[in-house]
Amino acid sequence: MRIRKYGDPVLETNCAPVAEFGTEELKRLVDDMFETMYAHKGVGLAAPQVGLAQRLTVIDPSAGENPDAKLVLINPEILEKRGKQVGEEGCLSIPGFREDVARAMHVRVRAQNVDGEFFETEGEELLARAVQHELDHLNGILFLSHLSPLKRDLIRRKIRKLQKAGEWE
Ligand code: NI
């Protein structure tokens, strides 16, 4: 699947809930998203990043090393956030730019799986960071929003140059 880059309006869309569960299409979409994420060495990928404005994300903090680490969150909601961590963050939709972002250290989430069953899960450190980053995507928010206006404008200007040079598609 083609990854949409910063500037594509789908990345700044408030995504719609997934309504149909257990279908072959949904299962194939999840598989394709994992494959796309691993191909780009990411630890999380949200549906809008592949052009679909739906509340669905795949996460794997082990980057494919541990099959048990695979997480599919559909229509997710954060129930609780605790603590704080500051660490470098990037996004497959904003390649080449990484910046420190402050996030909660620990999150508890409620979501649905591909069959529509509700479940709760918790995570900390990288998993918590990935969950918060990916859930932001579902609300049309990119990690740039968490930076200082100065840093954000600097990155935007650099991206605009890349766009003009035809090096951003
Ligand atoms: Ni991202």
Describe the structure.
With 169 residues, the protein is of the alpha+beta class. It has one domain: Peptide Deformylase (Alpha-Beta Complex), CATH 3.90.45. Helix content is 27%, strand content 25%. The protein is built from three helices and seven strands, in the order H-E-E-E-E-E-E-E-H-H. Strand 6 (106-112) and strand 7 form a beta hairpin. The radius of gyration is 16 Å and the shape is globular. The site of nickel (II) ion has 5 residues, from helix 2. Residues 91-93, 133, 137 line the site of nickel (II) ion (NI).
Quickly give the CATH architecture.
Alpha-Beta Complex
Low-confidence segments? none
Order of strands across the widest beta sheet? 1-2-3-6-7
Return the domain count.
1
The radius of gyration is: 16 Å
Please outline what is shown here.
The protein is of the alpha+beta class. Helix content is 27%, strand content 25%.
Summarize the helices and strands and which ones pair or pack.
Elements: H1 24-39, E1 44-46, E2 56-59, E3 71-82, E4 85-89, E5 99-103, E6 106-112, E7 118-124, H2 125-138, H3 149-164
Antiparallel strand pairs: 1-2, 2-3, 3-6, 4-5, 6-7
Bound molecules: nickel (II) ion.
The site of nickel (II) ion has 5 residues, from helix 2.
Task: Provide keyphrases for this structure.
3 helices; Peptide Deformylase; two-stranded antiparallel ribbon; 7 strands; five-stranded antiparallel β-sheet; binds nickel (II) ion; alpha+beta
